[in-house]
Specification:
single chain, mainly alpha, about 75% helix, globular
Length: about 270
Amino acid sequence: MDVLPGIIADARLLAAVGNTDQRAAGQAALGKALQLGGHLAIRLGKTDLALSALERAYTAAGDSSDPLLAPMVSNSVAWAYQRQDRLDDARNLAVHAADGVEREQAGTAEGIRVWGGLLMSAATSYARSDDYDTANVMMRTAERAAGRLAKLPPPEDGRLVSVFSRSSVRIERVRLAVQHERPEEALLLAKGIRLSADTPPSWRTWLLLDVARAHTDVGDAEGAVKALEALRRVAPAWMRHHTLAVAIVNDLWSRSVHPAGLRKLAQFLGFTE
């Protein structure tokens, strides 16, 4: 929040000066900066503000030197729509953008990653519309496609492209299984995950939280505590302020039998007796 206004101002300057190629590169920087602003607004619950930023990001993307930026911004818009419970809009937008990438950019690692991210987004919208079977089919398709990445040259800068790998697909499949009250399936999926080096820390923390929830749902308090202990090691501040993490520990603490390690977690979150 402190640095973003300056980043956007600098990117606007880059997009306005220089020759044609330099301005196009500046528009790409501006599109990414405004996309970041949209993501920040979504995280703050300001989805209307997010859509305003993302509309400007999409316009900049159209004038940029990056053909994949517009579909990546479309994915961000789909995320904002999901937060507004506009699931049909989110799904249709993600599918339309994915189709465009598949036609024009499917032969590169960058294209596959952007296409895969859009497919995962569409699957999430299907799942939230209570069509878990369709979502699961799409996720399986995405996971198979992720296997093609090993045979292609990696992106020049993976940080500028959508998060997409076998790890990320499997993490999202675990999340959807937990959300649809399929804890056994979630734990089976989680057991087969091998996190790639480019898996963002935020995705790792979500996986640990979902695994903890799945263990809790099947009555395995010890397994839940182990996952929560790992979560505390990698993201202690995030865990302390996340309502689901607090709710899981509180649920386990309210039970008559406390597995080893639970008291320390409860003390960490501040609700021991």
